[in-house]
Amino acid sequence: MKKTWQERLLKEENKLNKKVNKLAAYIEEPSSKFDELDEWDRDLLMTQHAAMTAYLNVLTMRVKSHNLRSEEDKESFELNSKEWDEFSKYLDTVKGD
């Protein structure tokens, strides 16, 4: 059976949310090997995290605008102020501000 765009959007958002959280844990976890990477690779991973977070924020806004999430799922996808700041900074770089 063919999935609707809403189902595909929710699935994509969920998968990306898991990846963003996993990458954030790697970057932030003291026991990870992140600090052993050279500066270039650390910068690239942090840039990747910012881009993934920005994309996740766009997907989350689309889901919210179409009211696609069930009540019990809403809390796990609320954007905190740090995430909104990262998203805003990313948009500024994309727009060239």
Q: How many DSSP H or I helices?
A: 4
H/E element order: HHHH
Query: How many domains in all?
Result: 1
Tell me about the biggest sheet? none
β content, as a range? Answer: under 5%
Proportion in helices: over 70%
Number of beta strands: 0
Question: Radius of gyration, Cα only, in angstroms?
Answer: 15 Å
Shape: globular
Overall mean pLDDT stands at 84
Structural class: mainly alpha
Uncertain regions: pLDDT < 50 for 5+ in a row? none
State the end-to-end distance. 44 Å
Relevant terms:
about 100 residues, mainly alpha, globular
Report a brief summary of the structure.
The chain is mostly helical.
Question: Can you lay out the helices and strands and say which pair or pack?
Answer:
Elements: H1 5-28, H2 39-65, H3 71-74, H4 81-95
Helix pairs in contact: 1-2, 2-4
Commentary on this structure:
With 97 residues, the chain is mostly helical. The chain has one domain (5-95). The chain is built from 4 helices and no strands.
